[in-house]
Design brief:
The chain is an alpha+beta fold and 89 residues long. It is built from 2 helices and 2 strands. A two-stranded antiparallel ribbon has the order 1-2.
């Protein structure tokens, strides 16, 4: 970790900005000291999404079985398909 003060503002975090045309001077935050901007949130990786979906389907199936309700066959089909994809990659 670098403990040296910023070369632009000398560790003060502020810089003076002069506008020669308008003959004004303002104080602004030092751009060199500002943390880098994070990129926008992207997509969840497909493998993680599939694993979470698999867990959600299993939990829903367990809830239906505990309530003695019939489990929709589409859930079983999707669970089986995702289970193969996730565990055979």
């Amino acid at each position: 970790m670098n403990n040296k003060p910023c070369e632009v503002c000398n560790g003060k975090g502020l810089v003076q900005v002069r506008d020669i045309e308008k003959q004004t001077q303002t104080v602004k935050a030092c751009p060199a000291c500002q943390p880098t901007k994070k990129p926008p949130l992207g997509l969840m990786p497909e493998k993680i999404w599939k694993e979470k979906r698999l867990q959600s389907i299993k939990a829903a199936i367990d809830r239906f079985l505990a309530a003695f309700q019939p489990v929709p066959p589409e859930w079983i089909d999707e669970y089986n398909r995702l289970n193969k994809e996730v565990h055979n990659q």
